[in-house]
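Aim 2, interim progress. The first record below pairs a target sequence with its structure tokens.
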Amino acid sequence: MSDNANQSRTQRRLAASLASAIPDSSNPPAVAAREIELKLIGKRGAVESAFEAVAGGAAGSKPRARNLMSTYFDTADGALRGKNHVFRVRKVFNRCVATLKWKQQAFNSHIRGEFEARLPSMEPDVAALPPKFAERLHAATGGEPLLAQFITRINRRAHLVNFGGATIEVALDIGAIFAGDRHMTVRELELELKRGEIAALYEFAEVMSREHGLNLAPLTKSERGFSLAIDQPPRERRSRAPETPAQASLDEIIEIVTGECLEQFTANWPAFDGARKTEPVHQMRVALRRLRTALSIFNRALPNPQFEYFRAQAKSLAAAFGPTRDMDVFIALVEDGPVAHYGRDSGFDALLATAVARRENGCARASAALADSQTSRFVLELRAFVARRGWRNSLESDELMKLDE
């Protein structure tokens, strides 16, 4: 049998095993699983062509197609959302599957903890869940009843690919999110790491971005759904002190600090798309400035040309947000200073009109930078470099001992 035939048969077996691997509540998992995934979006037709390029590359292996209907739940006061938990019940074929997800790392939203279990219906019957699942859900809700918040209807075509020693599920999701009389469309590629190193997932996403012009989508379906349900646009994400374990190694410190900066940067993309653009622009500049400082420090401690490369990239990217922020500060200075003291006259009106025009030009430049897939590739490349511990490649054996300090 040819190598291609063997590979196709292996892919089909793996796909079948993954499709049927839904935990049964009569046999609850001993520990929670870990989900590692990210999403890519693009102009109309781009995600479809990207998926076809991937799915059409494997002879004899056809993508799996499913219609997914999911209801997302929370308490009346949003306890789950407030604790970074998401609970949904999804109908897959004739099975109802409950899923609880939560953020495991503040510096990497692509990694989440996950429980899954079968339910007899689409109702959130906590009593029918495995003990560990129910305990975590109860702790997050405080025992308050769960209420339906929104639903998603998604047509999913999925295909498994092997890349860089990893197995990655590439899913084309097309559908919509519904919350009352409001709705939004969903059209994205979801990349989930099934086996292998997370660096391979970032590297594969970077290839997809480069070849098909796709961008990172910072918000999950659940985050978009809750934003729709409460009718509130995404808010800015401010800087936070990195949460570093007491015994963290230098390798881990680099990952945590770099990841925190990237989280702050990308989390402000959706907020910039909304009406409140002033603060998100500022927070993106802050994130890039913090990142540049961190990379400079790391490069002094562990000299590696990649640190300087990413630092230069961050500096260039930050320049796209400078004019908008500068005009924001200038307009506030004029309005809170001279205008407040002397009163508004035609001279101030002309000055402020010029400043507002320059600010709008700056917003257009910032929007263009975020729409450019090069910005997403910068994030993905840096994530992959950190995950691979790329700085180790330029160190002598005795210098590697520093990384355990």
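The second target in this work package is listed in the same format:
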Amino acid sequence: MTGSDAWEFWIDRGGTFTDVVARTPAGELKTLKLLSQDPGRYEDAAIAAIERLLGTAPESERRVSTVKMGTTVATNALLERRGEPTVLVITGGLEDAIRIGAQQRPDIFALDIVLPEMLYARVVGADERIDAEGRVLRPLDRAKLERDLETARAAGLDSAAIVFLHGYRFPQHERAAEETARALGFKHVSASHRVLPLPKLVVRGDTTLADAYLSPVLDRYVASVRKGLEAHGRARLYFMQSHGGLAAAEQFRGKDSLLSGPAGGVIGMVRAAQAVGCREVIGFDMGGTSTDVALHAGELERTTDAVIAQVRVSAPMLRIQTVAAGGGSILTFGHGRLKVGPESAGAYPGPACYRHGGPLTVTDANLLLGRLDPKYFPRVFGRSADEPLDEDATRGAFDALTREVEAATGTRRRPEELAAGFLRIAVERMANAIKQISVQRGHDVTRFTLCSFGGAGGQHAAQVAEVLGIGRVIVPPLAGVLSAYGIGVADVRVLRQASVEARLD
């Protein structure tokens, strides 16, 4: 089956919204935006969107050939620490090496140092040792390892991360431990010589742990998507990776998924800029939960090291800066100042105007200031016409906040003044994120074009450009779903890392 006689779906499942671009058998592009969570209406927004768009076609034309997806499932699991309970198997004597880490202190003057929560639930020290030249100093005690892993299995652990000293170069002990774990029934096993065959035990261990912790979560999500697609033929399923290339669903791993959705936005941004002859472009992707910014000065910028949710991960990924300022960022007042985010109202309950008792957000500020037209929202979200945005709820919440500010400061402000103040704060935060990827890295930001996309990007792009001194803003026709479009036009790609270990002359 080819795309000529079947549908293709390109989907970005974000934290707040799920964006969909569908290519019909006739080659026409259709778009849809749904809340990623809407209890009582659907279990999975991606499948619901596919069903809704296919419902517009005759029964005989509802075949699906390909689904390409970007997802925040793994990222959210990492942020909320909802990954698979994992046992770390490491060379004996180094059981605390991952917890000790690199001894970096982001806040050098902090008196109360709070260590990040580890991804492993249990540590097993393997009785083995291979030196840096490959000599076996102590053979792997498989009987002891088997007993320790049986104890971990009995405790309910189904995922294992195996990290041995010098295992990236001499993996025979890791392979033997992997065989033992699989024989004992571990459903997922990540061995460091496969995940990251590079030196540096701590970085290799962190990345292998992240892979073991997140891959089972992805596997379950992939299985649920496949089940939802069963009624429409054997569709090929691909997922966007952090480095900007697609992978077949069965090859999509946890360590490569953390920037899955935002990476699609970068690819879409580049395509949109090229269409109007722009070579130097900065992407401004403002969604419901966060804003992602990226820079393209002729080629895609990639990095191999990142810290996401206090977890160090070494994997090829596009250089994307994220700030917790989106349409759903919560507006609060405390300690004499206005504050935007980092908490988000999410898809549910969402902003105050979504009729679910949610808090005040950036979206409410735009609604109060007349920057949103409520009549368009039912069509955008697929909601019924009798559920427009609740302007009364927004104004009532701002009135209450106005009284709170007056009681604390003795100064009377109109609700519109507060709303405008919140938006200025959000704009400054987003502009500062762009400075981090441009000005701080030696680029003259005024030479770039700002490409605005994401559901909320158009409301703030001109203000952000003004703060930065950027003179040109482009808004692509598919701006609201550009990340999904980027996922659809991306290439299938594999990036591999290896250690050369050669003597230089």
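DSSP finds 14 helices and 21 strands in the chain. This observation will shape the mutagenesis plan for the next reporting period.
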